[in-house]
């Protein structure tokens, strides 16, 4: 394989990975637009329980700064880009809940030396929240008595607050209306992004175009040059019967003295891509199941390369699916997903090393399946 074709193959593989990411991202946005968007156009979470013993639960500050040249309020209003909606109710139906949004500096002054919890991370997939605890010794004044709130709502039953995105640093606060300790609330968080559907379609189209170009690059890298065949005929000269007889006798004597040995052709290392079979085997594992699929499509002749391609698809396809599935399990999901990632990395290194040495290294059941399918 020439240097140019290797470059085409590299760009094709990289483009294929990017295109697949774009396709998945665009598809995820379109699915979300049809599955988790409500009738009002808000993408919402499921109900999340907040149960803390402190006086308040706040979000980390959201910093928005658009005065950087690309938009200084001339192209669009920030409120047209994103609108947030927070729904909440107290678990005790007789108690009132307070929900408010204010600038970070005002919240810091209000909760100075007050015990509260800050939301570090919201796990919408498993309805779980990670908190950062802030100790304090002061009992805060009732939030309804404060005048710095940009948007707020309070009362008995479900309260709904909608807030359009604004420039600056803002914080969401959830409290009891009287400012007492002990937050026990059911919350639903939502956001309306009118441009998201168009963005999803654009990403999907870009992924399709990238996929076509990447496949074209890979196909060109695997294309064999057509060898030119000479159509010219050797010049024929007239030869007398006596001369032809002498030549025939000489040829017969040479053949009798030095018989021609049969020609043997080594076909074990031949590959459809023109790469050395050890190199092709290594590349089957380079980007996991993605390069496995590529070489399974390209390779038609070498059974060892096809073995590595099939084993790569099975092994790393399993790791990908397992990691994604286990990641959704509450509490332990992240730990086991990380453990799978470490195991996959070790297996990845081992398989590439073994393939580069020309060894048919089998990974449990996957290796047996690959061996049968490639033979």
What can you tell me about this protein's structure?
The protein is built from 10 helices and 12 strands. It is elongated. With 375 residues, it is of the alpha+beta class. Among the domains are: 40-193, no CATH class; 271-375, no CATH class. Strand 7 (116-123) and strand 8 (128-134) form a beta hairpin. Helix 7 runs antiparallel to helix 8 and helix 8 (303-326) runs antiparallel to helix 9 (333-356). The strands form 2 sheets. Strands 3, 4, 6, 7, 8, 9 and 11 form a 7-stranded mixed β-sheet that branches.
Number of DSSP helices? 10
Please give the share of residues in helix.
Answer: 40-55%
| Broad shape | elongated
Task: Compute the CA-based radius of gyration.
Answer: 34 Å
Summarize the biggest pleated sheet: 7 strands, mixed
* Model regions low in confidence, pLDDT < 50 over at least 5 residues: 68-74, 228-237, 258-268
Average pLDDT works out at 80
Q: Label the structural class.
A: alpha+beta
Task: Tell me how many strands there are.
Answer: 12
Order of helices and strands: HEEEEHEEHEEEEEEHHHHHHH
């Amino acid at each position: 394989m020439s240097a140019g074709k290797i470059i085409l193959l590299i760009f094709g593989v990289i483009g294929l990975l990017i295109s697949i990411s774009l396709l998945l991202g665009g598809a995820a946005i379109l699915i979300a637009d049809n599955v988790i968007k409500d009738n009002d156009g808000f993408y919402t979470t499921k109900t999340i329980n907040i149960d803390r013993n402190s006086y308040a639960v706040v979000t980390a500050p959201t910093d928005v700064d658009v005065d950087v040249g690309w938009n200084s309020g001339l192209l669009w209003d920030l409120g047209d880009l994103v609108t947030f909606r927070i729904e909440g109710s107290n678990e005790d139906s007789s108690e009132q809940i307070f929900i408010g949004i204010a600038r970070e500096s005002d919240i810091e002054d209000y909760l100075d030396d007050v015990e509260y919890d800050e939301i570090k991370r919201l796990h919408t997939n498993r309805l779980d929240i990670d908190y950062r605890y802030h100790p304090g010794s002061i009992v805060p004044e009732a939030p309804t008595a404060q005048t710095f709130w940009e948007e707020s709502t309070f009362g008995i039953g479900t309260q709904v607050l909608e807030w359009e995105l604004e420039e600056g640093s803002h914080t969401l606060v959830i409290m009891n209306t009287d400012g007492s300790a002990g937050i026990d609330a059911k919350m639903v968080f939502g956001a309306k992004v009118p441009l998201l559907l168009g963005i999803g379609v654009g990403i999907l189209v870009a992924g399709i175009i990238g996929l076509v170009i990447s496949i074209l690059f890979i196909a060109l890298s695997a294309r064999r040059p057509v060898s030119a065949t000479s159509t010219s005929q050797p010049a024929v000269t007239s030869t007398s019967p006596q001369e032809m007889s002498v030549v025939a006798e000489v040829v017969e004597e040479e053949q009798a003295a030095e018989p021609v040995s049969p020609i043997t052709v080594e076909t074990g290392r031949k590959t459809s891509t023109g790469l050395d079979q050890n190199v092709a085997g290594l590349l089957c594992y380079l980007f996991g199941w993605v390069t496995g699929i590529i070489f399974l499509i390209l390779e038609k002749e070498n059974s060892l390369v096809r073995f590595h391609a099939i084993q790569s698809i099975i092994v790393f396809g399993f790791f990908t699916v397992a990691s994604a599935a286990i990641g959704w399990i509450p509490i332990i999901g992240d730990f086991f997903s990380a453990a799978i990632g470490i195991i996959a990395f070790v297996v990845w290194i081992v398989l590439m090393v073994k393939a580069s040495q020309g060894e048919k290294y089998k990974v449990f059941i996957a290796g047996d399946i690959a061996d049968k399918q490639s033979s």
